[in-house]
């Protein structure tokens, strides 16, 4: 019940012995119309890169060099439909807003090889700092001002397996629209039509005129600096303190037991007792109660803990956004409670609070958040964020060479972000990736098992 993935993390390969074989730009296969792409207030604060890794076993019909060729050709075709992906991020001097100049300057493409085999790389579920060698983050052959919004890297391993590393600027996609892009990439690589026609009009998430902030937004922190100067800022702690790193596995049986516990008090009126809600409530309690201020002894039960988590607003707007909406259509929901309630209150109430955070995100609330971003410059703000890659389905994308053995983001150890990933063994289970200072990690682990068993 609620086991550690392994009692001790396996030794991680420190150097994948990568050789870069080729680096070049990839351009749209047809001429595209030059235009500027409007970026919503949700897009505006996401000017940073997200790196994802997709590992594949060897395939006799698709050796890595064939895969690289097929991906290059497919990407050239997709850059016609996804014209903004071949563009460049610019600042409009009149509005002070970020835009994408669809100038067909191209995406980046890298071909590399590793002297290691996939088996030597080890447990792929463990975020290894060396995985950073599988994704090129900038193109040295281009000027700093001309960096692409997307870079692909295909790395072959000695065994014939390979990894596809993709670095994308977050202004282009959220996780849902990136999954659609991958489905289209796989379809075009197989010689088929687009799996889903992307909907690219981001004006649907423009602020109202005049903007109308109709709710207090405790989940947002106002900044006093212009947005352009805050593109690399973060409200989360970026300190370099030493952190322990562990993966906690919740099996489908564990999750069912959490759902049963949430049902016992019948407090979750109108709130769905979903797998995400019960897992998030369980993590919230463990994380909040393991927190301690430096120099303090014991837990301040009057302290208020705020948890943040993403909600897809596509189906929540009136009218709903198209499911294939291309940009960022995810907002940050929140729940707040005193540590005393988290420790002593019924689990069903915690699940209810998590569910209420998502339920709050209706059309008017989402529009209020977007309008807040028109008036203010700021970011989501809370004690920690649950970032879920659990149900995005990257590992289900069917390429001509098969589905990935494992897909994941490139992970950096951060004590204020807890990551949820699919379990490689149990399709309905989840792996919880936690990084904390040693003492707090010990407390988190105790609470994790205690609250599962009671």
UniProtKB/TrEMBL annotation:
InterPro entries: CAT-like_dom_sf, Plant_Fungal_Acyltransferase. It comes from Hevea brasiliensis (Para rubber tree). This is Omega-hydroxypalmitate O-feruloyl transferase. Gene3D superfamilies: Chloramphenicol acetyltransferase-like domain (3.30.559.10). Pfam families: Transferase (PF02458). Belongs to the plant acyltransferase family.
């Amino acid at each position: 019940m609620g086991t550690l993935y392994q009692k001790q993390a396996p030794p991680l390969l420190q150097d994948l012995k990568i050789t870069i074989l080729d680096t070049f730009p990839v351009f749209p296969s047809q001429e595209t119309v030059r235009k500027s792409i409007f970026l919503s207030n949700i897009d505006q604060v996401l000017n940073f890169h997200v790196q994802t890794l997709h590992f594949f076993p060897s395939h006799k019909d698709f050796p890595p060099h064939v895969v690289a060729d097929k991906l290059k050709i497919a990407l050239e075709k997709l850059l016609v439909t996804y014209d903004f992906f071949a563009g460049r991020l610019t600042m409009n001097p009149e509005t002070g807003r970020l835009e994408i100049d669809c100038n067909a300057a191209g995406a980046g493409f890298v071909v590399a090889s590793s002297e290691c085999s996939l088996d030597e790389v080890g447990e792929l579920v463990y975020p290894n700092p060396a995985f950073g060698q599988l994704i090129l983050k900038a193109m040295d052959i281009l000027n700093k001002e001309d960096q692409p919004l997307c870079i692909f890297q295909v790395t072959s391993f000695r065994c014939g397996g390979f990894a596809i590393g993709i670095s994308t600027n977050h202004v282009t996609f959220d996780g849902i629209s990136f999954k659609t892009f991958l489905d289209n990439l796989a379809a075009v690589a197989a010689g088929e039509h687009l799996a889903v026609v992307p909907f690219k009009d981001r004006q649907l998430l423009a602020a109202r005129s005049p903007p109308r902030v109709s709710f207090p937004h405790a989940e947002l922190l106002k900044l006093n600096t212009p947005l352009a100067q805050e593109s690399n800022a973060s409200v989360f702690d970026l300190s370099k303190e030493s952190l322990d790193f562990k993966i906690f596995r919740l099996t489908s049986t564990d999750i069912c037991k959490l759902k049963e516990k949430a049902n016992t008090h019948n407090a979750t009126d109108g709130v769905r007792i979903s797998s995400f809600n019960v897992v998030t409530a369980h993590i919230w309690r463990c994380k909040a109660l393991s927190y301690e201020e430096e120099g303090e002894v014991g837990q301040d039960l009057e302290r208020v803990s705020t948890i943040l988590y993403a909600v897809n607003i596509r189906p929540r707007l009136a009218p709903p956004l198209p499911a294939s909406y291309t940009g960022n259509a995810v907002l940050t929901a929140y729940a707040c409670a005193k540590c005393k309630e988290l420790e002593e209150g019924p689990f069903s109430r915690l699940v209810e609070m998590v569910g209420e955070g998502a339920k709050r995100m209706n059309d008017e609330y989402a529009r209020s958040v977007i309008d807040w971003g028109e008036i203010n410059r700021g970011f989501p703000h809370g004690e920690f964020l649950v970032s879920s890659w659990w149900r995005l389905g990257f590992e289900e994308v069917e390429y001509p060479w098969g589905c990935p053995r494992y897909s994941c983001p490139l992970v950096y150890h951060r004590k204020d972000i807890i990551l949820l990933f699919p379990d490689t063994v149990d399709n309905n289970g989840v792996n919880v990736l936690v990084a904390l200072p040693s003492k707090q990690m010990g407390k988190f682990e105790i609470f994790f098992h205690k609250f599962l068993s009671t």
